[in-house]
Amino acid sequence: MFYRPEEGHGLPHNPFNAIVTPRPIGWISTRDSAGNNNLAPYSFFNAIAYVPAQVMFSSTATKEDRDDSKDSVSNIRDSGVFCVNIVEYAMRDVMNATSAMLGKEVNEFEHAGIEMAECATIDCGRVAQAPASLECKLTQIIELPGKNNRLVLGEVTGIHIRDNCLVDGRFDVTTFQPLTRLGYRDYGKIESVFELRRPDD
């Protein structure tokens, strides 16, 4: 099969969503200027540089109570900061609860019964029991082709790691089994890892 995206695929569901997988989930926490907390998952998320440590996520829709974005992007525009919380398999249901299209005044931490802790380097909440959280300062918001598509770039200013995720000095993902986004309504979890050495190592 071959198709041009602008001409359509002719399938019951968009295969593009399932081709680039698995994708890590950035559980983005933000706070607006009035002090309202927000928490929402984004599967267009990744780390993009080591030094300085940098991450990105993209938002591809808007809400009725926002002019041209979702709560996360709007809050980041105002505050200049955000926190990325890593999602473990055990948190799949509460993470999913925070994906609901709720009013901008609704605190998703409270809505989903998630314990919130304060960040150390930025004015923002974080998921207290997350395997890791990355405190970030905004570097750029890039307008992408298409309606309401925005790429948010941030520099990591602080990192929280849950103690039981460190094994022999390494951040061991098998201790918490990261939740990953697949296509359609499908998810996966990382249960095992293996090592490959580069030929020039």
From TrEMBL:
UniProt-listed SMART domains: Flavin_Reduct
Domain Flavin reductase like span(s) in chain numbering: 18-173
UniProt-recorded name of the protein: Flavin reductase family protein
InterPro entries: Flavin_Rdtase-like_dom (IPR002563), Split_barrel_FMN-bd (IPR012349)
Pfam families reported for this sequence: Flavin_Reduct (PF01613)
Organism of this sequence: Arenibacterium halophilum
Top-rank taxon, per record: Bacteria
